[in-house]
Amino acid sequence: MRLQGKVAVITGSAQGIGKSIAETFASEGANIVISDINAEAALKTAEEIKIKYNVETMSVVCNVAKLEECETLIKAALDKFSKIDILTNNAGITKDNLVLAMTEAQWDAVIAVNLKGVFNCIKAASRSMLKARQGRIINIASVAGQMGNAGQINYSATKGGVIAMTKTCAREFASRNILVNAIAPGFIRTAMTDKLTQEQKKTISSTIPLARLGEASDIAKAALFFASDDSSYITGHVLAVNGGMYM
Ligand SMILES: NC(=O)c1ccc[n+]([C@@H]2O[C@H](COP(=O)([O-])OP(=O)(O)OC[C@H]3O[C@@H](n4cnc5c(N)ncnc54)[C@H](O)[C@@H]3O)[C@@H](O)[C@H]2O)c1
Q1: How much is the pLDDT for 111?
Q2: Is the pLDDT of residue 195 over 90?
Q3: What would the CATH number be for the domain defined by 7-241?
Q4: Residue boundaries of the structural domains of the chain
Q5: What is the mean pLDDT of residues 70-82?
Q6: What is the DSSP string of the chain?
């Protein structure tokens, strides 16, 4: 058990990549805080994981775009578990459009969740980690933040920003043994990519050396590496999990 007795908070973990990370951490003995804007799904996921992996779980409704809600999430986690060992900033949304067609509302919404949301959660969770002189922060970025993606000016800007924040926090927190790393997924099969047509998926697959979309579990395994003792001399790293799409 690589995370026995650890406490992990995972944002946007009611479904998709976040849920897979929560399951993987729980399967290694971690107690899990599921947080999401979708209250019903978050509760269901937390119950499911508790029963399946025999760990403690809780679900907290939290819109990461609101600092106050992130502070409430962290307080609830600390009230129940007295510590947070691992924060995974996973909540993210897309509102795609070409530059000229993108509305201010589409820009603002994606910045608020994907960029400010990561800042909000790190700000809220870091105090207890700094006091404990240990912690792991794992940010879910994207290949779009590394190579850009037509139609995603808002999304790619946030994910590039997440990579920059990862490196800044890695430097700022290193002396307190808080390791901060990012994962940059390529195209992963979840509700987010279900929006793509078969034709689009085929075109995307043709640009990926491994010639297929990835699975949520591929990202979860990388997150487990960053959460575990196996990565104790790694900080400020961006791990590409993209089938070779961007090297
Ligand atoms: N699927 C991919 O191909 C892919 C690729 C690269 C990066 N990512 C990133 O991985 C992360 C997870 O994506 P996914 O594919 O699992 O998406 P998903 O849509 O399946 O799940 C996202 C979850 O986040 C929650 N959420 C949305 N807005 C929120 C908010 N304001 N506060 C809290 N929770 C919120 C949703 O309710 C949902 O449960 C995102 O950051 C995404 O940008 C995904």
Answers
A1: 99
A2: no
A3: 3.40.50.720
A4: 7-241
A5: 98
A6: -TTTT-EEEEET-SSHHHHHHHHHHHHTT-EEEEEES-HHHHHHHHHHHHHHHT--EEEEE--TT-HHHHHHHHHHHHHHHS---EEEE-------B-TTT--HHHHHHHIIIIIIHHHHHHHHHHHHHHHHT-EEEEEE--THHHH--TTBHHHHHHHHHHHHHHHHHHHHHGGGTEEEEEEEE-SB-SHHHHTS-HHHHHHHHTTSTT-S-B-HHHHHHHHHHHHSGGGTT--S-EEEESTTS--
Rounded to the nearest angstrom, the distance between the alpha carbon of 147 and the centre of ligand 1 is 19
Instruction: List pLDDT tens digits, range 85-105.
Output: 999 999 999 999 999 999 999
pTM for this model (two decimals):
0.98
Q: Which residues have CB under 6 Å of ligand 1? A: 11-12, 14-18, 36-38, 62-65, 90-93, 113, 140, 142, 185, 187-188, 190-193
User: pLDDT tens digits for 118-177?
Assistant: 999 999 999 999 999 999 999 999 999 999 999 999 999 999 999 999 999 999 999 999
Ligand 1 site-directed mutation target among 11, 93, 94, 215, most atoms within 8 Å of CB: 93
* Residue 155 annotated to the active site: yes
